[in-house]
Structure prediction request, 246 residues.
Amino acid sequence: MPDTGQRERSVPQYEPYEAHEAYEGGSPEAERLLFEKLARELMGVQRAQQQASGAAQLLRTFHAKAALGVDNARLRFHDSLPPELCVGYARPGATYPAVVRLSNESGTARHDATPDLRGMAVRVQVAPGESHDLLATSFPVSHAADAREFVAFAKATAGADTTVERAFGLFVRLPLAVGWGAADRMRRNVHTATRYAVGSLARETFWSRGAILWGFGRARALPAAPGPRRHPRAAPRQLRPGLPPP
Prediction:
C-alpha cells in the first residue's frame, strides 16, 4: 500500500481508575455505608421541603424546577479533539443523541427571579444500554468541600421559606454541623454564586465543578451567542429568552 503520509493519532494509555481512588473510610464498603446514610438524610430533606412548600408530591431534592427540557439534542465532539481526551466514547467527530435539562438549583418550585444557582444536565446515549450523565452548575466551584458538607448544607436550609428561617439555618444549624470556618466559607460561596439576576439561561456558563477522570480536570459549557448575564431586575419567565419555545 502506498504511503500517503497520513498517520493515525496515538491514544495515550491511562492507569485504571482504581489507581486514583481514595475511598472514604478506607474501603469500598465503608464508603458505601456512608453514602447510604447520606442518601437517607437527603430523603429527609425532600420530605421537609415538601411539607414547607405544600407540594402535592415529593420533588427532586435539588433542581426541582426545569426551565427547559429537550430530548432531541446532539452531543458532538470536535474534529480536532486532542489524543489525551480521546477516552471511551469521546472520539474526534463522534456524535451522539442527548437529553438536556436546564433548571433552578432549589428543591422547591420557586419563582425564577429568586436568587439561585442554575444547573445543566446532559444524558448522552452512546449505545443501547449505555448512557453517560454530564452535570454542571452556573458557578465554578462547589460551596461544599465534600459529600458530608453538601448534605449538611441541604439539611440546615431544608424547608426554610422565610428570611428568618434561612438565617437560622445558615448561622446556627450549619456551624453546628460543619464548624464555624467551613460554614462561613459555604455561606460566602453561595452568596457570590447567587447575587445577580439571570437574564437568560441561553447566556449562562456552566462548570462541572468537580474534577472528571477523563484526561482533564473540569469541563465548562459556554453559550453559543454572547450577551449580558447580569440583569438588575427580574422579569416574568426571565430564564427563557433565547431558548426554544416550550
Remarks:
- Strands lie at 66-76, 95-104, 118-127, 130-137, 197-198, 206-207, 220-221, 230-231.
- The longest strand covers residues 66-76.
- The helical segments are 28-53, 147-157, 163-178, 180-193.
